[in-house]
Amino acid sequence: MTTPDVAGFAGLTAPTTPHLAGLPRSPGLTGRAMAPQPSGASQGFSPETARRDVPILHRTVNGHPLIWLDNGATTQKPRQVIEALAAFYSSANSNIHRGAHTMAREATEMYEAGRAAVAQFLGAPSPESIVFVRGTTEAINLVAQSWGRANLGPGDDILVPVLEHHANIVPWQLVAKQTRARVVPVPLRPDGSIDQDAYADLLSARTRLVVISHASNVLGTVPPVREMTALAHRYRAKVLVDGAQAVAHFPVDVQDLDADFYTFSGHKIYAPTGIGALYARPEILQTMAPWQSGGNMIESVSFDRTTYAAVPHRFEAGTGHISGVAGLLAALNWLTAFDREAVADYETQLMAYAQGALAEVPGLEVLGSAAERIGVLTFTLPGHTPTEIADWLDHDGIAVRAGHHCAQPALAHYGLDSAARASLALYNTREEVDRLVASLLELQAA
């Protein structure tokens, strides 16, 4: 991959990870792994090195320093992303493709460099296997309406684990109604993991598609995706993996997973809202018809015959979120400048610390205890509704989420219709967990 030589695009180079060797590093990150490490830091990574780059973490809320524990809903943005957006709009704003002038060429080079960076970030075989979308929800709907309507029919099964986000349930219900296929829920075990015995029993010659969250947004569960995919492929079923909650927490290689489809949202990985990506196995993507139509996705148009652009452009109707790609490229550059394995180790340690700390709050119950999980702590506290908990914490500057988290079947598994959720990211600290626990203890004493 070559990176664009684009004047004015500060920091918009391709990300650097071990499998992206030789590409430029984001400005200001060189040597950060050698910074002094505060208590709780993992060797090779300190959360302070990330916190220094994220301006919003230095504001106050209700007179208290902000503690952002709503990362499952959206992550906060480093200055490199903010500056990339400003640089695009202040010095390089142009539409892409087909433009003959300098700025159009520069914007197009940046946009396609972003596509190549996403491909390498996911371990995809080529940039042509990456489609830019608004986010995970749009990507799943694209697959449902393009691949699903063409390949599903009466009697076909779509296996959907109970832990899935609504965005990975409802589109399949809609396409199942259109095609007379059937959505089959895969049950959970008491610890919040997918019941693998039930999954194996539900697979059959009728199974056409299995959808799996790489990490649950409400339980934190990380299923054995590679093993589940291999089993599904024995029945010639396709597998779609929802990576929205996974990609910010640990490295992903779609070829190693052998996924047929993989998707994520930029705003869950320190990039802007409104941008995301869909990976599809190239031979599958080539067979898929356009879902939306209009400009940018055509080769030629007449009233007699219209032909479509090659993949992936045939799936990107209209003007895309060009500045969003600039921000996504900067976010990947920022994130991958850290040692990803060290970040994952740090987050695992922080999660373990948070679990122990919350256990000191009498009556507090955390949902799910699967062995493999990310830093998601969804909990209940007797005598207080989730909304009351979130409101109380907000007065102390602590942001958590309350509600059904767009995962009502997963909550129903525990007999609940709502809960509070604290979700961790690489810039969170033990001190912030301590403040969360102290505030909850004060709520109990109030």
TrEMBL record:
It comes from the Bacteria. Gene3D superfamilies: Aspartate Aminotransferase, domain 1, Type I PLP-dependent aspartate aminotransferase-like (Major domain). The keyword Repeat does not apply. Its EC number is 2.8.1.7. Residues 67-436 form the Aminotransferase class V domain. The keyword Transferase applies. One of its GO terms (molecular function) is cysteine desulfurase activity. It catalyses: (sulfur carrier)-H + L-cysteine = (sulfur carrier)-SH + L-alanine. Its cofactor is pyridoxal 5'-phosphate. Pfam families: Aminotran_5. Residues 1-48 are annotated as: Disordered. Keywords: Pyridoxal phosphate, Transferase. InterPro entries: Aminotrans_V_dom (IPR000192), Cys_dSase_SufS (IPR010970), PyrdxlP-dep_Trfase (IPR015424), PyrdxlP-dep_Trfase_major (IPR015421), PyrdxlP-dep_Trfase_small (IPR015422). Belongs to the class-V pyridoxal-phosphate-dependent aminotransferase family. Csd subfamily. PANTHER family: CYSTEINE DESULFURASE, CYSTEINE DESULFURASE 1, CHLOROPLASTIC. This is cysteine desulfurase.
